[in-house]
Amino acid sequence: MKIAIIGAGNIGGNLARRLTKLGHDVSIANSRGPHTLTELAAETGAQPKEVSVVARDAELVVVTIPQKNIPDLPDGVLDHAAPNAVIHNISNQKSNLERLYLLAL
User: Looking at residue 59, what DSSP letter applies?
Assistant: First the structure.
């Protein structure tokens, strides 16, 4: 399965580790850019990408960033996910869920 992870902290990084071990095609992005993900990429085989393109053709997009940062996601970040992609937010705050859902439309 083609999976995109937005956020490379404890949750996103560990998801990348586990999902690549299971054989999934994982792309990952963070707010600092793909050049900051080289160690994680070397360790896991996940592909570091810019946030603006990480979800391209992904069947599953997992958002692991703090809810307060969702408004900072680029417009259209989910526009090129696969048709019927599942967008899963695993942050633990509720304040900006509406913005994430609007991005998914």
Answer: S
